[in-house]
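Researcher: Next sequence.
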Amino acid sequence: MSFFQNVFASDFEGNWVLGDRQHIPKFVVSSNTGRGDEYVVAWNQGPYDLSGNDSDGTNTSDTLEVMYALREPKNWAEISVDIASGADDTSAVTAAEVVTALNADTLFSERFSASLSKFDGVTGLTRVSIRQKKPITDMRFYIKNGRAEEKIGFNARAGVQELPSFFTRHSIDNRFAHTDSQNHIIELDLSDAVDLNLVTNAVDAHGVAMDFGWDGTTAQADWELLKGRSGIFNFQKMIVDGSDRITQIIEYPAGAIVGDFSRKIIYTYTSTNTKPDTIAEIPYTLESGDLITP
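Model: Next structure:
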């Protein structure tokens, strides 16, 4: 029941091992299509207004925060660079000024190099590119959300997806909490304006808006994310008669929706007997009135 972002160059694939070992639901957060293992490019065109604060209202937009890990992939460190201080106009910082500011920072230039690249081979529009100086076998990096990143958009096409809460173990924040943590995804906080914007403005690899079927206020519960794919978590809608006897049960796997396959169980009784004479289980297709919410 959480949203996650994948800022890296490879997909995150999480398997939810349930009772049926022959069918294990897979949950995927797509890669950041704006990067490779050793470089990342910006998706938003400049100039950038870095004069105010980012969406959360407390952090200034003038600073780009780069996270990197040397050799041991769980030991993340941060490099923060004020990329607006040397600009002619902090409300209209050009891509070239961003590149100059980054390369002028000693800590940044020791690990990375920034340059200008083309959005495509036709237009003259440029964007900022960042490349690490060590191979991927020795170093990993990503751009931290918020602040200047919100305006520049290195993570603008990073994968965003809703996953069961079980997969919080694989987030960067929980990398030391679980020995099996993949240290691969970022858990987004919907109460934070920066993270909320990442979900509501999420696009796929082609820049097409993602449709989560989501109202912008509440993430889905874990059982909803099962989408009827598990045989061990079942819901039952019961009907009883005037004598408080069960006459019918509609049983379906958690997360199933209207039109999905389910089972109807029918009980019959003789006279005032409290125990059924017959029990019949038949195939059934779910209707809207059959669905229940825990």
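Model: The mean pLDDT is 93. The longest strand covers residues 63-70.
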